[in-house]
Amino acid sequence: MMKFRWMQLLPAAALILGGTAVEAKVELAPVFSDNAVLQRDMEVPVWGWADPGESVTVKFADQTLTTTAANDGKWMVKLAPLAASKENRTLEASGPTNTVSAKNVLVGEVWIASGQSNMEMPLWGGGANFRHRNANGTGKEVADKTNIPTFRFTRMPRQWSGTAMTKEPVKWNLAVPGQELEAASAAAFFFARELVKELDVPVGIIGAYWGGTRIEPWTPPEGFDSVPELANIAKTVNAKLPGTSDYKAVSDKVMVDYAAWMEKYKNAIANGQQPPTPPAFPAEQQPFNNHQQPTVLFNKMLATYVPYAVRGAIWYQGEANLGDRMLYKHKMQALLNGWRKVFQNPGMSFYFAQLAPFTYGGDPTVLPQLWEAQQAFVDANEKVGMAVITDAVHNIRDIHPADKEVVGKRLAYLALKNDYGRSDIKADSPRLKDSKVEGNAFVLDFNFVESWKNADNIPFFEVAGMDGVFYPAKAVVDGTKIRVSSDQVAEPRSVRYMWNQTNEGKLANEAGLVLGSFRIEYKPSFDELLAYYNANSKLVYEYDLKSGSGFGDKTKVRYTVDNSDAIKGKLTRITYIARLDGNDGNMQFVCVSMDPFTQNVKQIGVPVRSTGALFQTRVRNMNVLSNVDSIRTGKFNEGNIEFWPNNYAQYNRAGIPNASNQVFDFGDQIDNNVKTGYGSMQIHNFGARQTIFAYNRFEGGSNADLGIGNQPVNNPDWTFSNAAKNYSKATLYVFVDEVPRKTESELMGQVTARVPEAGSMKLAYAYDLKSGSGFGDRTRVNYEFDNSAALTGKAKKVAYLMVLTGNDNQESWVYAGMDAFDPSVAKLGVPTKSTGAVFQKKIANLEVKSNTNKVKTGTFAEGNIEFWSCNYGNRNAAGIPGASDSTFDFGDERITGVDPGYGSMQIHNFGEKQTVFAYNNFSVGGNSDIGIGNQPVNNPDWTFSGALKNYRNAWLYVLVSME
User: Could you tell me which of 738, 756, 906, 892 has the C-alpha nearest to residue 821?
Assistant: First the structure.
């Protein structure tokens, strides 16, 4: 029994009451309270506290056991296995001076129910969106109709502690109408109700859950100790626990350090010197300070139940650990190992709900990667099962699926089949058993399926070839097998199903249990990848990354292979493959492909000054393959590159998400004062806070900076690392995919077919308006045709033709000609920041033609344009006649603080109070603002409309007449 320090200070007389010394009374552990349910068919520990050496007798049913309290006051007996019983009986513990009891005790099945908010979600009593509801009724209706006195449950209040608390109050509630039942876990309720119905025995649920919590707080120290992959967490925990080797090691070091400091302190004082500062308190022994830290919820909300006899546990958690991906498998293993050990139950069953689809945002594959970890945990363990619930979603924007009945029942089916011998119950979702490739198709075979439901037009299958780029695939049922193929992948290597956070399960077995997410991922070797790209793409450059000392003036590159002059088409894809052969014999490689960030093939190699390459640019549709474990592989919507010959600094002036201002990483600042300087050729996955590949200090030769993945120490992007010296050989390959460019005559044919008289003008630009996502940093335009360099001299007239083809195949076009508002052709195209085009001005001799009545045609003495790359407001700062201050129209105000920003390319006929055409929000591709004439509702100039999504094709042609 614990004796508190203040008791030692009391005089003996103070401990005498009425002439008799105070004796500790026998106590039962709080879990043994009225209405408890004891586990049947296994030994049942019963424990409590008394004075050391005191005799304690426990009676229940026909058993009587006697024991003696240990030196710490704790006592324990173990009842022999009990048969199930609905009889309310009394559990009694007695000592020399008192007897304590728990009344109305039943014997049946006991389960722990734990997790975060989806386990916590009640039948009723939460908010309108945080309570059970389905077609069978609301949670309130369910609770009001429930009267199952043999079903009992506890619900531990939300609390946490840095140390294990073993005497927390426990109240057992009966499943009868009332607030307690309404507030109970809905998932646990339906699980237990199903067991009561099928087994006809009492059921007890030990409830411990807390919304938003991670898995680590629910795990006891023993769990972390058992999983090598979590050694860092185990050390954090154990350094705070007296009796552990980590605690001793940290404590011994502290005492040595403080003793040394004290000696120095004494000497300094004795010599009249400034005393040294003491050593810092060890971080490992700082107390835990919030409820999300390891062990703290187990300590307060579960330790009081240990080692209560239970059949198993049900678990619904993972949302808070979403970013763990496969590491979550190991954390679940620690939880299970820890619970099995502390509950002295190595065969404890463990069933959990796989997370439901939800719009988490960010990388849409993170949730499928957690699903994969959950399945891997199941595959690695006995007496563990997972309820797939990807079909049980009422709204993918609600993280709390409303229907908890399906969750509870599917968990119960697993228990009934695996723990209670109900082989007639189908509890398992289909699971991939085998796969092979036949021709251009994957043939997949599955366990736990006799026939398929919802097998017409099966969605969410994808396949990929050697390059790892996935394409939607057709899935055809063949008995219990499924054949998966895509016309875009001749030789499939990888297949995946439901690999997006919003995919909802539909394909199900004969019992209606849906197939869960899975993938078969082929990891090609370097030789396979290189052979693939040599066969399917065009090699532009091959380069010895250790040859930089040959640069001379640092403006030219001595490529091993340079095929850049042979590339004449439009670039559709750029791929970089780097191979680094270490001095230690290990070989690393990375392959990263992306949409083109430029159409100038000279700028995709090493960015020395002669190339004109200067890119602090986001790139789209990035695909990464590597044999380096730390590299995040797969497809990513965005990444970024830092290609320049300049010096650079750490400041994240470009505002790259997650980048630092203190270290060199993926958001550095170009130094325009030293334009032939250190040099940077870096490719980053900023969403993963990761450098994919870096090559800096080009002229450094064997002392250049070079690396794949983040540098483990110092600067993540390898700046100042001189790491090329660690490699015996280092090679970079640059490949492109290209398609033939449309010729000038083809493009002019599109123009003259609509405006014949424009044939006398020169085509300056042709631009696919839906390609705006190719801008990268919104300062460059990937024109289909760009003749601006050849159009020297001064422009005297400029004309624009916008052609829009709707999703309904209806075409509308408008032509707007005018006197040139700037003599430089470079400023007459899409006004991105690099062009320097900033115009809020009137134009002369506006000529409008169109095939639609949405815009007034004819010749007008004046109009006005709003061309800029920045954000803008709706105030008519320029005083354009007839413009509004309250809507975005033909008289808006530039906001110069955000540039590049939203962007505006608008031509207006202000005399008619009309937008001729508008193109805004350049960088978002198919979601840009676009329109001919005034928008019928909201802003006349189409701002915030996102209307380009309404068109399957959209083109802009810019024509000029030169002086």
Answer: 906
